[in-house]
Amino acid sequence: MSNEAALIEAARNGSATAFTSLVFSYRDGLFRFLLTRTSSFADAEDALQDTLINAYRYLNSYDSRWRFSTWLYRIAINNAAKLKSAGTEELGDLHDEENDPLAHCIAASERENLWQCARRQLSDEVYAAMWLRYVEDMSVNDISAVLERSVSWTKVNLLRGRKTLDVELNKTATDHKSKAYG
């Protein structure tokens, strides 16, 4: 029996310490993932807290045929979706001047940020698949389980996502006469 399996069994028997030890190694990755799926730092914190509470509450429903991390990420996706569907009010543009140098720097930085570009170009599910693969280093099978999609869907959409980003980033590089992206 692995250490993770022993912790799961102890947590199922009511050990909060075992549960804390179990989720500790996943906490930072879950939080980074939730930051990409929510509109603010506070929403990501709320979704993480809800994820950990739900994981503890429903630990008896965990099926050991799957990786524990897959199960946690699935809960996280559901909690982020609940926050997104609840909606948040946008404050709008708070800048008084159109020629604000700080705004231009931030806009330029966002244009060059791969994950910001991915967020704009890809659907939520494809973005999540890309994030889980390239940031969280999950296998295609685990991503398929987390997103509740087939392995074929996952492979095809990872490829399409990469191609979409390649086209967008190369277009941006060409527009700015830069060879940064090939």
Strand content: under 5%
CATH names the topology of the largest domain as Rna Polymerase Sigma Factor, Chain: A
Structural class of the helices, strands and pairings?
mainly alpha
- Low-pLDDT segments: 88-97, 178-182
Describe it:
The chain is mainly alpha-helical and 182 residues long. The chain has 2 domains: 87 residues, RNA polymerase sigma factor, region 2, helix turn helix motif (Rna Polymerase Sigma Factor, Chain: A, Orthogonal Bundle); 80 residues, Arc Repressor Mutant, subunit A (Orthogonal Bundle), CATH 1.10.10.10. The chain has 9 helices and no strands. Helix 1 packs across helix 2. The longest helix is centred in the last third of the chain and has 25 residues. It is globular. The C terminus is likely disordered.
Note the topology.
Layout: H1 3-12, H2 16-37, H3 41-57, H4 68-86, H5 101-112, H6 114-121, H7 124-134, H8 140-147, H9 151-175
Helix pairs in contact: 1-2, 2-3, 2-4, 3-4, 4-8, 6-9, 7-8, 7-9, 8-9
